[in-house]
Amino acid sequence: MFRKQITIPSPEEIIAERPVPHELAAIKKERDKLATDVITGKSDKLLVIVGPCSAHESAPVLEYVRRLGKLNEKVKDKLVIVPRIYTAKPRTRGVGYKGMFSQPDPEHKEDTLKGIRTIRALLLGAIEESGLSAADEMLYPENYAYVEDLVSYVAIGARSSENQMHRLVASGVELPVGIKNPMSGSIPVLINSIYAAQSPQVFKYHSWQVQTDGNPLAHAVLRGRVDNYGNDIPNYHYETVMKVLEGYRDTEGGLKNPAIIVDANHSNSGKNHRQQIRIVQEVLQNRRFDADFKCIVKGFMIESFLVEGCQEHDIVFGQSITDPCLGWEDTERLIFDIAEKV
Question: Is 218 in contact with 155 (CB distance < 8 Å)?
Fold first, then answer.
C-alpha cells in the first residue's frame, strides 16, 4: 500500500523557485567543458572527483568545497577537480539514512520536498563560494531533473548500472556520466551499460515520452567487485584496465571516447579509506608504464572530508556519517602528488 504524504512539484517548478543566476550558470558551463574535454581526450588533464561519501549537512560540505576551490587554483593546469556532493545514499539492505535528497536532517524524518530545496541551495552555494560545480550520483533517475542545471558530472552506482532506466536517462544527459562496474565486476555488463547510454533511446521520463540522441560521454568507472562470499576484489590493476580497453575496442559499432575513472575506495580498497592513497599511486605508476593505460585512465574518484574516518551520529563537524573518508591534510597532499605525476 502507498500512503501519499507530500505533493512534490515538478522539476520545472522547483527550478523556477530558485533559478541559477547568469554568472553561476556561466561558471558551470565552463566547468562542464573542462570535464568533457578530459573524457574526449581534448585535454590531457586528469579528472579528480573528490569529496565526502555522502553530503549529510550543508555547512561542512561548503567549508570543504571552499578549501577545494583554493586548492584547485594551485593545480588547475594539471587537474580538473570536481567536488563530490552526493545527495542520495544507496543502502545495501534498503534501510538507513538515504541521503540529503530524502532526509535533509539525518536525525529527523524524511522530507523530500525540503530535501530537494536544500540540495539546490547547497549546489548553488558550492559554485558561488568555490567556483566549482559538483558531481552527484544519479541513484534515482527521475530525480536528476531537479539538479541537472547545477552539476557537471553524473555517477551511476554499481547497484544501478544494470538498471534499464538508469541507462536510458544517462543517454539524455549532456555531461560526462561515469557508470560503475556492477557488483559482480562483469566487464561485458559494464560495456553493455555504456553502449546503451551512448545509444539514442525513446522512453517515458516524468510525464513525457522523450527521445534522446545518446550520450557519447558515458564511460566506465572501476570500483572493485564483490565475490559470491562477500569478499572485496579490487579491479584497478593493469590487467583489468586492459580488459576494459579491449571491451571498448571490440564492441560492435564501436564506442565513443574510451575512458576509465578509477574509484579508489569501495571494493577496490575494501572500504579501508587510507588505502586510497596507495591505490592512486599504483594507478599513476601504471600510467607511466604503458601508453594505452595512460590514454584510457582519465582520473580518480576519492572519498574525503574535513575530518578523517566516520561517525555514527553527526557530532564532529566535517566527518562522514556513512563510509570513512580521508581527512583534509591527506587529501591535499594526495592531490598535489597526482598533479605532479600527471
Answer: no
Of the candidates 334, 338, 325, the one whose C-alpha atom is nearest the C-alpha of residue 271 is 325
**pTM, rounded to two decimals:** 0.97
Residue 1 CB coordination number (10 Å): 2
Distance from CA of residue 242 to its chain's centroid? Answer: 23
Say how far residue 225 (Cα) sits from the centre of its chain: 17
Q: Is 291 or 93 the better-scoring residue by pLDDT? A: 291
**Which pLDDT does position 92 carry in this prediction?**
83
Stretch among 27-41, 85-99, 163-177, 278-292 having the lowest mean pLDDT:
85-99
According to the model, what pLDDT value does residue 252 have?
72
Residues in the chain: 342
In order of start, what are the domains of the chain with their CATH numbers? 52-133+304-319+328-342 (no CATH), 157-290 (3.20.20.70)
Q: Which residues contact 159 (CB under 8 A, 6 or more apart)?
A: 90, 182, 183
- Provide the 3-class DSSP secondary structure of residue 95: coil
Ordered alpha helix ranges (H), the chain: 11-17, 22-40, 58-75, 112-130, 164-170, 187-198, 238-250, 275-289, 291-296, 328-341
Order of all β-strands in the sheet with 151-156: 79-83, 46-51, 297-303, 260-263, 218-222, 177-180, 151-156, 134-137
Mean pLDDT score, 18-37 = 97
Write down the pLDDT at residue 164.
Answer: 98
